[in-house]
Amino acid sequence: MKFFFVDDDRNVRTILNILIKERNLGECCGSASSGHDALDDIRVVKPDIIIVDLLMPEMDGISFVEEARKICPDSAFIMLSQVSSKELIAKAYEAGIHFFIQKPLNAVETESVIRNVAKSLSMQRTLGKVQSLFETEFRDSVPDESGSSQSETFQNRLTSILQKLGIIGEIGSRDIITLITYLHDHHETLEQQTLQKLLSHFSDNPKSIEQRIRRAALSGMVNLAHLGLEDYSNEVFTEFSNTLYNFEQVRKEMDYIRGKSDKHGNVKIRTFLNSLLAYCEHI
């Protein structure tokens, strides 16, 4: 991972540089004392993770992130600040940051956050590659040499994810497990046939199964939204709001829960199921 630091405090940039190198977290590809200078630099170095201060002269951190995302849409952003205002923190997340770290920096916390963001970014990129293969109806498949034991391991992963989403008790979760396991065992994807046709293998009423799956997936998104409201840095929230779900829709659900909007977030079931399949096969 390549890191870039944006902070008007040279000491903070130095501390981050030392932390990245000593903890073997990646490579420091550059730093800047202002948002304007950083925008010019990141066009060239294309960092994976950008760590930026919230309060800076001329261009604040939120404005910087909004502009930087246009230049480096695949980069992840971590924001630093002494400010503890929930409204300002929420605005920062809406601008596109992945984590918010309070100053003064704590080495253990900062390392943990960086590792989590790097892991999330790597997984997101992996899922993106897999999903692009889905779109062209290609997917590398490895023959199941270990028989039922491999299938059981896959189901354990799948069950663990549904538990983290808080939907393992939903009726639709059983349908999800059956469907995703079938796709995995037969080396198939949802791009190769319609959801209705696929579900007809398991029931004479595929529409009913689809509705149960939809309710379970929506419940998972609502649970994630609540986790994010309680703690933006919650590992389950950061792990799945950007992978299994569309983060913009999760954020929309968070706004609904806050009372800021009268519209719920929505879930594209095919995308959710494809992402879940890919995630289980690559963790």
TrEMBL record:
Keyword set, alphabetical order: Phosphoprotein
Q: Which domain of life is it from?
A: Bacteria
UniProt cross-references to InterPro entries, sorted A to Z: CheY-like_superfamily, Sig_transdc_resp-reg_receiver, ST_Response_Regulator, YcbB
Gene3D superfamilies with a match to the protein in the record: 3.40.50.2300
Q: Does the keyword Repressor apply?
A: no
Q: Show where the Response regulatory domain sits.
A: 2-118
Classification via Pfam families:
Response_reg, YcbB
- Which residues does the record list as 4-aspartylphosphate (modified residue)? D53
Function recorded in the entry: May play the central regulatory role in sporulation. It may be an element of the effector pathway responsible for the activation of sporulation genes in response to nutritional stress. Spo0A may act in concert with spo0H (a sigma factor) to control the expression of some genes that are critical to the sporulation process.
This protein is called: Stage 0 sporulation protein A homolog
Q: What is the lineage of its organism?
A: Bacteria, Bacillati, Bacillota, Clostridia, Lachnospirales
